[in-house]
Amino acid sequence: MQKVITVDYEKCTGCRLCETVCSLYNEGVINPELARIKMIRLEWDGMQIPTVCQQCDVAACMAVCPKNAIYRDNELGCTKIDYSKCIGCKLCIQYCPFGALSYSFEKNRVIKCEFCGGDPICVKYCETKAIQYVDISSAAVPKKRDFAEKIVMEVSTSETP
Amino acid sequence: MPLTGKVAVIDLKKGEITETSIPEQLRRLYLGGRGLQAYLIYNHLKPGADPLSPDNVLVVSAGILTGTMAPAAARTQWGGKSPVTGAIASSNMGGFFGPELKYAGFEHLVIKGASKKPVYLWIHDGEIEIRDAAQLWGRDTIQTQQLIREELEDEDIKIACIGMAGENLVRLANIRTGPKDAAGRTGTGCIAGSKKLKGIAVRGRLGLRPAYPQKALEYAKEAIDKIMMTKVAKAMGVDGTSFIWNVTNSSGLLEWMNGQTNRFPFGDWHDMTIERFHEEYSLGVAACFNCTVHCRHQFRLKEGPLKGAFGEGPEYNTQTAFGTFGLNNWADMLQGWHLANVYGIDTTEWCNATRGVMELYQRGIIDKKVTGGLDLSWSNAKETTPKLLELTAKNEGIGAILGQGAKGIIEQLSKYGDKVDYYIMHCKGLGKLGNVDRVQPSFSLGIATSTRGADHLRSRPAIDHYNLPEPVLEKLYGGKVSSDYTSYDGKARMVRWHELTYAVVDCIGTCKFQTVFFSPNLPAYEEWSKYLEYNTGLEFTTEELFEIGERVYTLEKMINHREAGHTRKDDYPPERSFREGHKYGLAPVKGRHLDRKKYEKMLDEYYELHGWDNDGMPTPEILKKLKLDKEPSHII
Q1: For burial by CB atoms within 10 Å, which of A51, B55, B202, B579 has the most?
Q2: Based on the domain organization, do B459 and B562 belong to the same domain?
Q3: Which residues of chain B are within 8 Å of residue A121 when distances are taken between CB atoms?
Q4: Higher-confidence residue: A151 or B99?
Q5: Is B611 domain-assigned?
Q6: Which position has the higher pLDDT, B518 or B81?
Q7: Chain-chain contact of B298 with A46 (C-beta, under 8 angstroms)
Q8: Looking at residue A156, what is its pLDDT?
Q9: Residues of B numbered 294-313 whose beta carbons fall under 8 angstroms of chain A's beta carbons: which are they?
Q10: A24 and B217 in contact by Cβ < 8 A?
Q11: Where does B398-469 show beta strands of DSSP type E?
Q12: Which chain B residues are closer than 8 Å to A32 by Cβ?
């Protein structure tokens, strides 16, 4: 079953551990700038929002790549970069609607989340479970449940006409 | 390669910057953070300098592990010579500034001299620029951070800055970063102001390379799991430091009206609880860098001229600061807290000053002529707090007196009565917190011997309250310690152990709340040795780390002796602790105050354990043993 990384920003405390573990695991250096997950901290509004590749089915990065260097790993359900084909034109970075790709200035190459080979390290270290790695088929179930509960609340609290 | 962080010596008068790397020999003696900072102060501060003169130094130090995989290694230490006390300035803050400084290639900044016009430092990827801050001068601590990010076009820049208070040379001014964190105590913001240094902006893309990446990563998880297993981590994650307020309040361990009573005198204390905060204000919790405990409350003010303003905090220490002089609800406390934060005022020092001056007013020692017409009655606190904070930030009227901190207030107001130094409670010129220390010998000794003055984060053995079995205490402290918190037995040993241990924590750069401060089950020496080895490649035994703690504490003692002439006479708690007991609270609390003879004996024991003489001075033998006999050695 294919999986997906989900982010519940309401649970995120903005600690940036996801960034440090990602950069160390994938790039061998503690450097949030080289993480494939990026924490957006809107400090003056108290918002912390981790952003990460959505692994789109119709992926702008794949479509725009002139060398077909981005391909889909059907087993994991993520898109990956074939560095033997990549020419480093960075069009993928420009065209991704989420800004999910970045550029490693150390290794001079584009980097993106590839699920750490099936066991994403950011998820493992996220203490509040704001980042989760779940089956695509069941990813939306908690939301459906929240919505259902909201309906129940509204029905139970609304006055009978 | 790990440990590439440099020391930058920045002369603001000449505009010169010199950079040096840190020799391993100094690492082994002082680690980093607070330890290397004490070394840099002792070596770079001109002896006897006026704290507000260009001869003072402002030293900024990230811990040796700050920014690494060690859990909650978020801390930055600020120091110099304190404008509040004339002794060591030393304050430690969390947030995200320190890690970013490390990623920018620097670990310590020694800022000397003074600029003629306002400037700020822009530190990024191995470079340091001194930039014009004319457009920032006069801005509050939030606006300043926003404007610098706008100017440099990068929202990820981390900034530490002063507000109006620091600019106006208010002695108790602090340095702020982000919406919450501050190098609060001992007036570091005033030192920055005296140098016309509005702030420091940092941004780093250089990163840190652990000596053993895989082990550093895996051990972080092991340590986090251990930390999160403790009850205290869970409680902190929900209530923050306030988790303890209800217990201390109902036990009679909080002081109100400047220590005149230990029972809440301002109406219904339920309006002060963290539960009420959750109901009325909480927007959730946030964390500092790489911290899984997340103890920072988020809120928005709901009324008053600042309605809608976002803030983080508040802490136990907000309740025991603003609550102690008559702000009896969250709306008023949060307004005071937020105002102090945007002005850049140390809430602990300011609240001690304010409640002390309010007691002088209550007793008729000072009157409206001194207060500039303000009615400083306890019942009028809601009205006066915003005005007093504004006057303090502007360094005007009664605010110019409050802003001096305990030592300055006593000097200025003693002409109105001979008991001023009795009511302005302090140790070494630094004001005390609003909790009851007088029933507890360990807490009293701790605030009295603390090198920076009355403070709980230098040695407070919070676990003295837990009534742990004595064999557990003996194992932890290496000698007999009573489990009764009102006893004097073994408490000198306990306090000294915590002094050295917290010094090591401040050298390392992790948060004290993820250490033995709160629970014997939280990380201590064994874990720190592993953090150090995996992240830096340097190996230290428990004994070696403990000796570093002793070295750092002793060097701070030497700074205090050199700069302020501190001796035994400066190692006493406020006189009130010996004379007055409280009427209320639990049986061990009621009526209890310190016993002078027993305190003296405890102090003797404490000096002996440190290897200091009867006057509290390090002996030549201990200086030699700690390799402090050649200081200042001017290696950097």
Answers
A1: B202
A2: yes
A3: 217
A4: B99
A5: yes
A6: B81
A7: yes
A8: 78
A9: 294, 298, 310, 312
A10: yes
A11: 426-427, 430-431
A12: 103
User: Mean pLDDT, chain B, as a whole number?
Assistant: 97
Contact A125 B207 (CB under 8 A): no
Assess contact for B343 and B165: CB atoms under 8 A: yes
pLDDT average, residue stretch B53-78: 98
Q: What is the ipTM of this complex?
A: 0.95
pTM tops 0.80: yes
In a domain, B554, yes or no: yes
pLDDT of residue A136: 85
Looking at the structure, tell me whether residues B113 and B152 fall in a common domain. yes
Asked if the C-beta of B229 comes within 8 angstroms of chain A's C-beta atoms, the answer is no
The confidence score (pLDDT) of residue A139 equals 82
Domain termination residue (choose one: B431, B466, B487):
B431
Q: What percent of chain B shows pLDDT beyond 70?
A: 100
Nearest by Cα to B165 from B190, B148, B139: B190
Name every residue whose Cβ is closer than 8 Å to that of residue A110 and which is 6 or more positions away in sequence.
A81, A86, A88, A90, A92, A93, A101, A102, A103, A104
* pLDDT at A159 > cutoff 80: no
Q: CA B574, CA B563: separation in Å to the nearest integer?
A: 22
Asked if residue B295 has pLDDT above 90, the reply is yes
Kindly report, residue by residue over B173-213, the tens digit of the pLDDT: 999 999 999 999 999 999 999 999 999 999 999 999 999 99
Q: Do the chains contact at B290 and A32, CB–CB below 8 Å?
A: no
B51, B188 in Cβ contact below 8 A?
no
CA B102 to chain A, closest CA, distance in angstroms equals 10
**pLDDT for residue A161 is more than 90:** no
**Residue of chain A with shortest Cα separation from B74:** A15
pLDDT band at B48 (very low <50, low <70, confident <90, very high): very high
Phi, psi (5° rounding) for residue B620? Answer: -55, -35
Residues B103 and B197 in one domain: yes
Alpha helices by DSSP H, listed for B470-595, are 470-477, 491-508, 525-536, 542-564, 576-579
Residue A14 contacts B, CB cutoff 8 Å: yes
Which top CATH class is A3-157?
Answer: alpha beta
* Residue that the structure tokens 């479970």 belong to: A129
The C-alpha of A26 sits at a distance from chain B's nearest C-alpha, in angstroms, of 11
Interface of A with B in 61-120 (CB under 8 A): 105
pLDDT higher than 90, residue A154: no
Q: Give the single-character DSSP code of B490.
A: T
- Whether residues A105 and B205 touch (CB distance < 8 A) is answered with yes
Among B103, B142, B294, the residue with its CB nearest the CB of A44 is B142
Question: Is the minimum CB–CB distance between B146 and chain A shorter than 8 Å?
Answer: yes
A vs B: CB pairs below 8 A: 82
Q: What is the pLDDT of residues B334-365, one digit of tens each?
A: 999 999 999 999 999 999 999 999 999 999 99
Residue B356 CA to residue B362 CA, distance in Å, equals 10
Contact check, Cβ <8 Å, B220/A21: yes
Residue of B523, B446, B460, B512 whose CA lies nearest to B63: B512
Taking the C-alpha atoms of residue A51 and residue B501, their distance in angstroms, rounded to an integer, is 39
Task: Report the chain A residue with the minimal C-alpha distance to residue B293.
Answer: A127
Looking at the fold, whether B347 and B377 belong to one and the same domain comes out as yes
At A160, is the pLDDT very low, low, confident or very high (cuts 50, 70, 90)? low
Instruction: Output the pLDDT for position B583.
Output: 95
Statement to judge: residues B246 and B152 lie in one domain: no
Q: 3-class SS at B18?
A: strand
Domain that holds residue B108: 6-203
Comparing alpha-carbon positions, the chain B residue that sits nearest to A106 is B206
**Number of domains observed in the structure of chain B:** 3
Q: Give CA–CA dist A136/A118, Å, rounded.
A: 14
The answer to whether B285 and B298 have CB atoms below 8 angstroms apart is: yes
Q: Do B207 and A29 touch (CB under 8 A)?
A: yes
pLDDT band per the 50, 70, 90 thresholds, residue B303: very high
